[in-house]
Every structure is written in C-alpha cells, then in structure tokens.
Amino acid sequence: MPLGWHGRVKIKSTAQQEEEKRKEKEKKLKAFVSARDAVLKKRSAGEHDEEALQLTRQLLSSNPDFATLWNYRREVLLHLETLREKDEVQKLYESELHFIEACLKVNPKSYGCWHHRTWVNTRLPQPDWTRELGLCDRCLSLDERNFHCWDYRRVVVKASGVSVEQELQFTDRLIGSNFSNYSSWHYRSTLLPQLHPQPAPDSFHSHRVCEEQLLKEYELSHNAFFTDPNDQSAWFYYRWLLGREEMISCVYVSREGERVSVAFSKPVHSEGLMLVLDGQPQQVEWRSTHPRLRHSPVWLCDLPPGSISDMSNEHNLTIHWTEKHTHRDCALYTGCAESWCRDSATNLELFRSELSVEKSSVLQAELQSCNQLLELEPQNKWCLLTIILLMRALDPLGHEKETLAHFQTLKEVDPMRSTYYSDLCSKFLIENTILKMEYAEVRVFSLSNKNLTTLCHLDQLLFVTHINLSSNQLLRLPPHFAMLQCLEVLEADDNAIENLEGLYHLPKLEEVSLRNNRILFSKKSKCFIRNCFSGVKSQCLVWPCFKDSVFFIN
Amino acid sequence: MHGLTESVIAAACSRVGQSVLHLDRRNYYAGNWASFTFNGLLSWIEQYKNQQEVQITELEQVWRSLIDEGEDAVPLSALDSSISNLEVFCYASEEEEKEEEMKTPLSSFQPVNAETVSEEANGDSTEAHDTVTGDDTTASDAKTPNEEHEVSEPKEDQHTSDISEPSQSQEEKESQLSSSPADPPVEVQKKITYQKLVKEGRRFNIDLVSKLMYSRGALVDLLIKSNVSRYAEFKNIGRILTYRNGKVEQVPCSRADVFASKQLTVVEKRMLMKFLTFCLDFEQHPEEYQDYTEKPFREFLKNKKLTENLQHFILHSIAMVTQHTLTEEGLKATQHFLRCLGRYGNTPFLFPLYGLGEIPQCFCRMCAVFGGIYCLRHSVECLVVDKVSNKVKAVIDTRGQRISCSHFVVEDSYIRDEQRQSTAYRQISRAVLITDRSVLPSESDQQISMVTIPPLESSAPAVRMVELCSSSMTCMPGTYLVHLTCSSSGKAQEDLAPVISQLFHVSTIPGEEPSEGAEERSKPAVLWVMYFNMRDTSALDSSSYSLPSNVHVCTGPDDSLCSDYSIKLAESVFHHILPDEEFCPPAPNPEDIIYDGDGPQAEGPGFDESTNTEADKSLAEEEGATHEKSP
After folding, report:
1. For the whole prediction, is pTM greater than 0.80?
2. Contact state of B594 with A224 under an 8 Å Cβ cutoff
3. By CB distance 3.0 to 4.6 Å, which of A67, A346, B16, B68 could disulfide with B581?
4. Does A15 touch chain B (CB under 8 A)?
5. Which residue has the higher pLDDT, A145 or A250?
6. Interchain CB distance below 8 Å, A376 and B269
7. pLDDT-derived band at B56, boundaries 50, 70, 90
C-alpha cells in the first residue's frame, strides 16, 4: 500500500529525485566515454566489423551529432558491402535507414543523420523513394521549417522523379496549413517556372511564370496578406511574382578603347558571359568597374588589340548570358566611334527591375487590391511598400507625388528602417530623373536638393557628361560611381560626402566641385585622389580647404 | 454515481489521502456521462424502459431498524428520472446482407417523382413512428411504471413486418441476430445494415453527454495539472462547420482557415482577422465597445460593419452565443475560443478517443490508484442524520449495511423531491445518429467536425452537433456518429427532428436509398437514431435542497459545449469538504512513489487487499463519497 501516515502517498523528495537523476547521468556518461574510447581505438586499428557498427550504434543513438562516428560507420559499411551478396547489401542499408530514423527522433536537425541518410540512399541497390518521401512528409508535419528535411526532400524528389506538379500540390498543402513558411513559398517559386513557364521567353519580356498562372498566384498571395498583412513571407513571394528575370539591359562598345561594357538589370556575376565578335567567340577577361565589385550590374572587357579599331569596318557583337539563356546584339557601323544597344529609359521596360510589366490592367487591379488593403490597414508597411512598387511599375512619373507621400508614411510607421526607405526613395527619384532626362534627350543629369541618401542606377548614366548632385544627403560617392565613363563635370556641393572612392578612374572627368562636404583631408586621401586621377593626362587639383573644395582637372 | 463532477471530487479527495468509497446503483461507470458500445446502448435503452420502483417499500423496513435514537433517516430516490422521452428509430436495412445486395439495383427503378415527395413522406413516416412508439415512450417514463408491460406489444408486430416498423427493441434485435445466418464474407461497402451495426457494435462508444474540450478549458487544465491526462488519448476536432442558407459550410476560424477559405473575399478576410485580433485583447481597447456593453453582441457586430457572412460565423460558430447575448459576454466567448486555437491544432477543441465517457473513468482510475474503492450495482438507501448536529453521520446501503462517513457526495438524481426546495431544472434535448457519410465530405474522411446550427425558426433553440469519425474510436469504419444537443423547448424529438431532416436523409423505408439525382442523395443517410431528454440541473445550488451541510449534491451535465461547469463545481465541493487541501496536485510518477514495507502489497497501489464488504465497514464512505479519516 502506498498509503502512509495520514493515508497519504509517500513521494520521494526533490533532493532525492535529483540525486537519483545525477547518479543516473554520471553512469550514462561513464558508459558513453568508455564506448567512445573503444570505438576510436577500433577505428585507428582499422577494424571494419559488425562490432564497430554495434558500438557506434549505441553511441549515435544517444548523440547523433557525433560526425566522426558517422564517418567510421561509412567506412565499415563500404567494407562490409564488398563481402556480401546484393540482397544482403540491400538489407544492410535498409537497417541503416531504420537506425537513422531512430536517431532523427533524438535530434531531427542533426546534420550528420541527414547527410548519412543521403549517402545510404546512394549505396542502396534499390532505394525506396516513396518511403523516403513519406518520412520527409512526417518530419515536415512535425516541424514545417526543418530545413535539413527540406534539403533532403529535394534530393529525394530529384532522385525519384516526383513530378513538378505533385510537388506544387505539396506546397499547396503546406502553405494551406500554415502560410507563414518561407520554405514552402520559396519552393513554390522554384517550381512554377518549370511547370508554367512564360511562353517563348525573350530578352524583353521575361516574366517568370505564364500570365494565367500568375493571376492565380496573385490571388493566393492576396489571401495570405489580407489574412495577415504583417506576415512577410507572402509579401516576399508576391514581390517575386511581380518581379522579372534579370536581363542584359545595355551593350556598349567603343572603338577607341577597344572595350565592351555590358549592363544588367541587376548586379550579376560575370560567370556565363560570352562575347561573340563577328561570329567568333572571343577569349576575354571580364572585370567589373571597380575591383571591389564581384557582383556588379556592369561588366567590362577589352577586345584583342586591333580587332575593331579600323573605322572602315563594320562589326557585329553578341553577348551571350548562358545562365539565363539570353543574349543581346550590338552592331558597330562603319565610321562610328562607338555604338550601343539598350533599352531606352523612355521605353516602358526600364526600371521595372522590381516589378515586371504585366498588361497594365492586371497591375492596375493589383494596385486596387492593395489600396483596398491600405484603407483597412493604413499603417501596414508591407502594403505601403508594395503599393509604391506597383505605382512605379505602372507610371513612375505620374505617381511621383503619391510615392513620396507613402515614403513619408513608411518612415513614420517603421522608423527602424527609415534609412532603408530613404535609400529606396533616392533610387526611385534617380530613376525618375533618368526618365525625364531621356525624354529631354540630354546628357545632363541634375538631381539637386532631393534628399538623396544614396546613388544607384549609375549604369544607366553611362553616357552622362554633366552631373549635379548638390544639396542632398549623400555620404559617399560609391564604387559604382566608376561606371560614369563619360562624366566630365561633377557637382556635389552641400552633401555629407566623406570619401571619394568612387572617383576611381573616370577617364573624361574634368571638373569636380565638392564644396561643403565632410571629406577627411589626410595624406592618405590626398594620395588617393592623386591616384584616382592618375590616368588623366594633365591635372590641376585645387583644394584650398575642404570646406570649399573644387577640383579642376585638365 | 460516477458522473464527471463526482469522479473528480473522489479523485481529488483520494489524492490527498482521504478514504473514498464510491457506490453506484448502475452496472457501468460514469452515470449520465457514460459511453456505451452499440449493444451496450441497446441494453441501456432496455434498462431505461424497464426501470421500476417496486421493492422500495420492502426494503424500507430493513433500514428503518438500523436507525438509532437521536437520528433521522433521509431516504434517497432509487429511481433515476433524469432521462426521459427516449425514442429509437432504425433506418438501416434490417434485411440480411445477401438480400440487400440483390435489392440494390431495384432502387434505380424508383419513380422520378419520388425525390420531390421524399421530404413530405419522411415527415409522415416520422409521425407514424411516433404513434407506434408512443407507448414505448410513455411507458418508459419512470413515473408511469404500470404501462411498462405494454412495451413488448409492438415488437410482436415487428416480427411479422420488419420493414414497416423501424423502431426495434433490444430483444428483438438479439433474436434476429441469433436467428440470422453469419454475414456473408463479401460485403457491399456502401450499404450498412442493422445487423452490421450490431455485429460491429463493439466499435461504437456512444456518449450520453456530448461535449468537447476547449484546449485551454478547465478540464484540460485539470487533466494536465493532475497528470490524469496520462490515462487518455485525444484527437483534435478538425474543423468547425455551420449550417447556413440550407448548406453546410466550413467556418474559417484559424489563420489557416481564413487564408484557405473560398467563401470569403479578401476584404472579408481582413475584416475577420482584424476583428478577431481585436477580440484577443479587447479589454485593452474599451473605447471600441463601451457604447455597446448594454447592447447585444449582435448589434456590436453590425456596428463593426462586418458582412452578413462574418456576423454569422462570429455569432454562431465562434462566440457561439445567442441573439440576445450582451456584447461583453460575446467578446469574452470569442476571446476564449481564440485563445484555445493553435494549442493542439487548428480548432480550439479536443475530443477523447473512445468517447467523453473516458474522462470520468480516468478520474476514477486516479481515485483508485490512491486507494478509492468502487462498487457498482450498489446503492445507498438512506442517509443517517444526527438530530443534534444535523449532519450526516452514516449511510445505509441497499444491502442493509450501515456505513459511517464524514461527508456524503451525491448526484442530484438520487435526491427525492421531499428534499428539494426548488425543482426549477431545465432539460437538454439529445439525439444520437449513426450515419453513412459526413455532412461535408472532404479530402480526409477522418475528421471530427463540430457543427453549429443556428435556430431554424426564431423560437427554436440553437443546436450543436458533433460529428465523430471512426478514428475517434467511437463508431465503426464507414459510419459517422453524430451527436446533437440543444437546450430543450420540448421533447428531444420535437426539438431535433426538424434539424435532422434538413441535414440528413431520413428514409421512409429502412434501407431505402434516395432516388437518383435527388437532393437527398447528397445528404448522409441516417441509419439509426436515438432521441432523449436529459435533465439539466446545473441551475440548482445548495440552496435548492434541504439537506445536511455535509451532503454535497452534484448537479448533472449542463447544456454547454464544455465541461467547465462540472469541473468548477467539483473544485468548489472539494474546497468545501477540505478547505486546506490542494485540489488535484500532480500525481507523482510511479517511480517516485515510496512503498513502505517490503511486503508484496507494494505491487498493487491500493485496494487489492480490501474486499468490498470489509472496506464498507472499515472506511466510512459513500456514493461518490469521501470522508476524512479520524486521526
């Protein structure tokens, strides 16, 4: 009878229980350490036997993150494999899968387990992928964000040839049970272009998904962000849907420099770029405009000396970008010193780098949905931001005023990111200015007194000769500034510019005005400035003081 | 009695070292909270019909002799009148399955107009049943025992015409069963005969009380706190449905539901989510509702510019309140619902596998582990009250034994009218259906659904329906067990049959299928149905009885969706009995219990050594009862 004095059950005291637990723990530790030592000894003795499997099994079942033991197990298995018949090998590895499953229960996020599982499946004479998929589903139903399992699932799907369609349904299911799941949305974004590709992709209209499906996906996103507008995952997916593929936006070639410049809609790597000149692939070295930029929207290369320098020859260049299966041509006609092929800024395509151009009625409808949501949720930053993006996609100049007002609201409701919004706003203002400049067909870029905090799209200013950035809040002239290969005059008075790194190798720069900035005048920076302009033939640098600095070059 | 409240009190008392003797006049646990196999239920129905008040007078002399001077005897009622208006109808084919298969093709030859007639015909047939079973019903009413004998009459007719008489008694079923040949091994999957139900009867666990557990309700909290949860397993309610505009629709209540809902526009989604988010901490925003505190919640919803859709969902399916409920109460109900979401799943509810009847049994088990003693089919005749202190000092059981006790806990149905100050109790209308498919088939056929059915007419009560799937271990595969509950405005059948005929196909002839293309065809068919009323005594309190202060009356199940009322009552009775003790502290893990002595008794926690009689004498307890042991 457990009933003691006063009929009460006697229970061990906390101290008693803890003491017992401590002893238990100590005992376990001892056993673990001695088993570990035995295993390591066996391994260094090169013993690859059943006992090794047994010992590592014991250890791994209590600590599946012991990578060395998994390695040893693989060595043993590889050895045993050579001694056995095929169906025995099958059995051997099947039991290994069972064992891993047990280990996954101990730690479902064990790198070692998942890696070993992938390996075992490569050794298994007849892998049972259905079972593996089932395992993934079970795991993901317990923790839908277990990225180890997501990774493994991709391996299984690939190996077993599960149809993309089924996988899309799988994401339907996961998103349905909880739409706050980046993994599912992201997976979806990789599947859609395969299942519903944009018909006949070309370099001008490369959306990721065909329009019919796109509309369905918009609806799905609406459902998510109307249900919970503060959940980012659906907004990110939506932005992806609205966005478009990277593409080559401009190819520029100059006879004098024997140089080709290629601009992209987004910063890219140079891998997969190929230059074909008059039908001949060229071995060229691609470089970005600044050595620090590995990811750049502009890449340059020098052509073999003499290949295009003769004015009387006509040349055809093609830039292939194998990664995105796209290319761009540019013809250099007789008598021309330079040539380019680009999307004109006045062409509706430009600056839709964030949002792709749908039939504008579709985008208009999206804008309406978002405005509707904004009415319900006037403080929602995701909604505000998406509206800004949609407005830009539809009519950036026409919506400029509203856009600026929305930016103001954004900075108020999300002060933690006000700098980000300032930068973004600067970007859009620059884009608008570029558009206006293009409409006016001039090579003068003037953007003074606009509260700019950053400079971007400098690749679009490839041909600008005069630039006025006075009275803004710029802190620096960034490395990208080096893209202004035609720049002659730079005015940037009344900013907060501290360094001039971006004035690197601007071949045509003649005049720089940097009055009232915060440039730190040191030997180093003097030296730097000299180096910057070292390529210029004759220089005359004047800097009475940095409160009032004007550089005249030439 | 071992209703939920009594079982919890018994467990709580036993847990802190009180001796508990638990007596029940029935032969099963959990009283009106019990769940039965199909066959068990059929016996229960028979018992109900045969209940008689016969031997009372004879026994009285026995116990009178045990009362001493200075003591009063307060007799208890031997008769349980908490169930009334019990009626049973069977619509499953009663033919043998072989014949059934042959019959199937015939149904397609039914005249086309059958579909338009079917509903009317149902109504007629129901009335017809009424008249036939009318005797059953009144006869089974406890207060007219003389008519009981007539119960058997209609059965004889049945033997001659199975088809015209859907209502069946247990004996008849048994006789049919025994006379019928074994079921053919190959069955037609979709047709379920009555014989099949009986044959698979053990797969059913049919609760008399239908309730769900709020995942943050008093019951779940108690199960967790006391470690009693280890004795049961639970399943999530998969979805909340509602009946609206003649259709069963899913109610979007969780975030995932709202996201996936096809009935709501995106703007409605936002409005709903916004409103629900507000409800989660509505106390923080009094300005939003203070003008409505004296007005109905419904008005408040209207004022919030919620669409008709959303008002319906919130009022009927989320807050689950009436048209007249005031705003603050509606907000609180909504808040409670929302707080329960996501703890165990996408709805706020859990249901115990094998039925709600498991829960009182789990507490009985804990009580037994700590030494409580259980006797079924053993009741108390009368209380022995000390005239001076006006306290119960002992009870006399049905075997004429006198058992002393310091407290007596009893269920309301044992109290005679003489001891009542107030008989202002209500009734609950119940229907239990076995159907052949879900009211809203979906990808998964193994979901438990909770269905809210707003009043069909303004005067009718709102009905709550729980549809259990076979994986809840309450019904055989291929069937659903459907519980309907409402507060009564009349007999259970009157209250609930109209709802049933809206949502289900009730055939006129057992086993008949609705004709091709009929609207009826899309509805689940009712195979078997039972109606009854259960007394709802939850409005009574200690002032409703004229009993000694150490007699604690537990009222039976209330009509609400959850068991909180019964749990809170148990806690308050416990504190009344033992003001200084903790209510259901966590039971220790078995390995942490120290067994004294090295004797073999250490093995069985508890009661193996004491026989019932011994226990009756040495420990002073009663009916769901507890007493402090004298030191």
Report:
1. no
2. no
3. B16
4. no
5. A145
6. no
7. low
Task: Give me A540's structure tokens.
Answer: 């005359």
Q: How far B524 CA sits from the closest chain A CA (Å)?
A: 27
B206: tokens are 């049919």
| CA nearest to B520, candidates B508, B535, B538, B504 | B504
Using CB atoms, which residue from B270, B371, B594 is nearest to A11? B594
Could you tell me if B86 and B529 are in contact, meaning their C-beta atoms sit under 8 angstroms apart?
A: no
> Which residues, numbered 445 to 504 in chain A, qualify as contacts with chain B under a Cβ-Cβ cut-off of 8 Å?
none
Q: Helix, strand or coil for residue B224?
A: helix
Query: DSSP string covering A3-61, please?
Result: B-GGGPBPB--HHHHHHHHHHHHHHHHHHHHHHHHHHHHHHHTT--SHHHHHHHHHHHH
- Over 50: is that where the pLDDT of B14 sits? yes
Q: Identify the band that residue B113 occupies on the pLDDT scale cut at 50, 70 and 90.
A: very low
Asked if B49 and B129 count as a contact pair (C-beta separation under 8 A), the reply is no
Q: How many Å apart are CA B622 and CA B407, to the nearest integer? A: 8
Sign of CA dihedral B1, B5, B11, B14: negative
Which range scores top for mean pLDDT: A352-361, B111-120, B240-249?
A: B240-249
Question: Are B317 and B240 spatial neighbours (Cβ–Cβ below 8 Å)?
Answer: yes
d(CA B516, CA B525): 14
pLDDT-derived band at B619, boundaries 50, 70, 90: very low
In A, which residues are within 8 Å of B605 by CB distance? 1-2
Residue among B254, B258, B266, B269 with most chain A CBs within 10 A, to mutate: B266
Give the closest of B255, B270, B592 to A373, CB-based: B270
Q: CA–CA separation, A447 vs B335, rounded Å? A: 54
Contact B592 A11 (CB under 8 A): yes
* A7 close to B (CB below 8 A): yes
Dihedral sign of CA atoms A213, A219, A222, A224 in order: negative
What the block records as the tokens of B472 is 């809840």
Chain B touched by A187 (CB under 8 Å)? no
Kindly report the nearest CA distance between residue B343 and chain A, in angstroms: 14
The answer to whether the CB atoms of B256 and A17 lie below 8 A apart is: no
Task: Mark yes or no for CB contact A9/B260 under 8 Å.
Answer: no
Q: What is the Cβ-side half-sphere exposure of residue B195, based on CA atoms within 13 angstroms?
A: 20
Burial of B149 (0-12, 13-18, 19+ CB in 10 A): exposed
Q: What is the mean pLDDT of residues A462-485?
A: 83
**Average pLDDT score over residue span A527-531:** 55
Smallest CA–CA distance from B608 into chain A, residue: A1
Measured torsion, CA atoms of residues B459, B460, B461, B466, in degrees rounded to the nearest 10: -160
- Comparing CA positions, the residue from B554, B435, B559, B439 lying closest to residue B492 is B559
The region of weakest confidence among A69-73, A509-513, B549-553, B570-574 is: A509-513
Number of CB pairs < 8 Å for A and B?
Answer: 92
- Residue B91: what residue type? Y
Q: Is A14 on the interface with B (CB under 8 A)?
A: no
The share of chain B scoring above pLDDT 70, in percent, equals 75
Percent of chain A exceeding pLDDT 90 equals 27
Band (pLDDT 50/70/90 cuts) for residue B467 is very high
